[in-house]
Amino acid sequence: MAELVQLGRLWNLINWTTLKYLDLVHPRLKQEERYRRFMKVRTFFNPELAIGQHESSAPIKVGRLQFEYLRKQGLKPQNNLLDYGCGALRLGRYVIPFLEPGLYYGLDISESIVAYSQRLVAKSDLAPSTPSLCHIKGSGIPFDKRFDYIIAQSVFTHTDPDTTLVIMRAAAEHMHDSSQFLATFWIRNEFGESRGVDYYYPAERIMDMAEKSGLRPEIKDDYEHPSQKMVIFSRQGPAR
Ligand SMILES: C[S@@+](CC[C@H](N)C(=O)[O-])C[C@H]1O[C@@H](n2cnc3c(N)ncnc32)[C@H](O)[C@@H]1O
After folding, report:
1. Where do the domains of the chain lie?
2. Would you give the DSSP letter of residue 100?
3. Ligand 1 centroid vs 107 CA: distance in angstroms?
4. Of 18, 26, 126, 229, which shows the fewest CB atoms inside 10 Å?
């Protein structure tokens, strides 16, 4: 079945029908709950496609792109990393074996994609690296530690401004003075939203949300994603 739903039209129909159902039956869900339900259906049909593209067959391998970019920003095997919205471990496949055991942390709003990723780890050679994977209910960080690196690839492209701000603040609380928080956005001149699952932010709005979260943003031009811009946030002041 997974192969069948890769056929573009069928996949589009699954997405369209799911969102239509949510609009009609659950019109007032918060972003986290709406996206969680959206992911549940997508993961049922095709977990690898549920997070965007298949890492194995996509022309641009977004997992590898993230990994190489993190390396460029100085990621070392001794650093700990939080993969916020880790999905089906597109990045995890590269970074988990690179990091020393126990230093990869992944979380996601979708329990179905986390369950899929846990099974993926258990049956692969990623298991000895003991990654921590967890499902979150709201938008927070349940790990009681500060991270050297936090990455949120293709997460703020799906979160509304309230949720984005909550995540930025949570990230700031889990950073130290030299941490880097890498997050991608669809940057447009005007704020935009599509079907309650896709969000487009102007650069000024990102600056404003960063300011409110105690973060200093730098919009980068060297991330080779076809549609998303990378923003690297650092802490504005000393960690409390
Ligand atoms: C497009 S996928 C990208 C996944 C992964 N970062 C990657 O590059 O493959 C977006 C992921 O963000 C998760 N997500 C969406 N809203 C979230 C939220 N509010 N908190 C945490 N994760 C969220 C989704 O469940 C999904 O797994």
Report:
1. 2-50, 62-235
2. P
3. 9
4. 26
Residues 6 or more apart whose Cβ sits within 8 Å of residue 98: 67, 75, 77
This prediction has a pTM of: 0.95
Is 168 a residue whose pLDDT tops 80? yes
Q: What is the number of the ligand 1 atom nearest to the C-alpha of 51?
A: 2
Q: What is the per-residue pLDDT for 106?
A: 98
The count of other CB atoms within 10 Å of the CB of residue 81 is 23
For ligand 1, the distance from its centroid to the CA atom of residue 205, given in whole angstroms, is 21
Across all residues in the chain, what is the average pLDDT?
94
- Nearest-CA residue for ligand 1 atom 4 is 87
Cα 206 to Cα 31, 118, 177, 191, 223, distances in angstroms? 18, 33, 21, 10, 17
Find the 221 Cα to ligand 1 centroid distance in Å: 23
Number of C-alpha atoms within 13 angstroms, CB side, residue 74? 9
C-alpha 27 to ligand 1 mean position (Å)? 21
| Strand locations in 111-174 (E) | 132-135, 147-152
Tell me the pLDDT band of 230, cut-offs 50, 70 and 90.
very high
Average pLDDT over residues 166-173: 97
- Residue-wise pLDDT for 14-58, tens only, equals 999 999 999 999 999 999 999 999 999 999 999 999 988 887 778
CATH class of domain segment(s) 62-235? alpha beta
- 91 backbone φψ class: left, alpha, beta (φ>0; ψ -120 to 50): alpha
- To which H or E segment does residue 199 belong? strand 198-200
Evaluate: CB of 106 within 6 angstroms of ligand 1: no
Tell whether ligand 1 has an atom less than 6 A from the beta carbon of residue 202: no
